[in-house]
Amino acid sequence: MAQKQELLKASLQQHCRQEADTAALAKFLAATLWHYLVQSPQKHLNISLKGDLGAGKTTFARYLIQAMGYEGKVKSPTYTLCEPYQIELKQQEITIHHFDLYRMRDPLEWQEAGFEEHFDIPGICLIEWPEKAEGTLPAFDLQIQLTAGADENERFININALSQSGASILKEGASK
Ligand code: ADP
Ligand code: MG
């Protein structure tokens, strides 16, 4: 029973009827990530964003990055593969690297582009289309899956923990 509860708490499902619901979920996750990183300032977290083209991966990432305190424009990293965002936490600055690997022609292009070092520093890597790297990326802590619903603005969003850190982030959020 206790174990079952643990599993249940390590995932989150949300039915978003409109974009504002997606924004609210991204803000909720941003608040728990913020809290976690303030407590563990040296941590690095890897978060994957999965779903078809137009599912809302970039939209979710944009709300998340802005809810973590970034005030500038968050553009899609479709052509650059990666965009960095400096975020002020309480005592320090961290970087969120937002990737979109859709246009990679080779699974190791992200390494050839010198992006490996982004995975070793305090902060977050948010990665759209991790499938394109065919398992060459470091392990993920959280996976966010977005699926379109019948209505144009309807989405189903599942967030799953893939590591102990990911599970404690979701549990922290659930206890609030
Ligand atoms: P992806 O990065 O998955 O290809 P985008 O985030 O670029 O998708 O595009 C999603 C589009 O769907 C945006 O134009 C966004 O405004 C729209 N949209 C409509 N409803 C929602 C919703 N509930 N959640 C996220 N995006 C939505
Ligand atoms: Mg995108």
From TrEMBL:
Where primarily located? Answer: cytoplasm
**Stated family:** Belongs to the TsaE family.
User: An example Gene Ontology cellular component term from the record?
Assistant: cytoplasm
Matching entries from InterPro entries are given as:
P-loop_NTPase (IPR027417), T6A_TsaE (IPR003442)
Name of the protein described by the UniProt record: tRNA threonylcarbamoyladenosine biosynthesis protein TsaE
What would be an example GO MF term here?
ATP binding
Keyword list (alphabetical) reads:
ATP-binding, Cytoplasm, Magnesium, Metal-binding, Nucleotide-binding, tRNA processing
Gene Ontology biological process terms, A to Z: tRNA threonylcarbamoyladenosine modification
Query: Which compartment or compartments is the protein found in?
Result: Cytoplasm
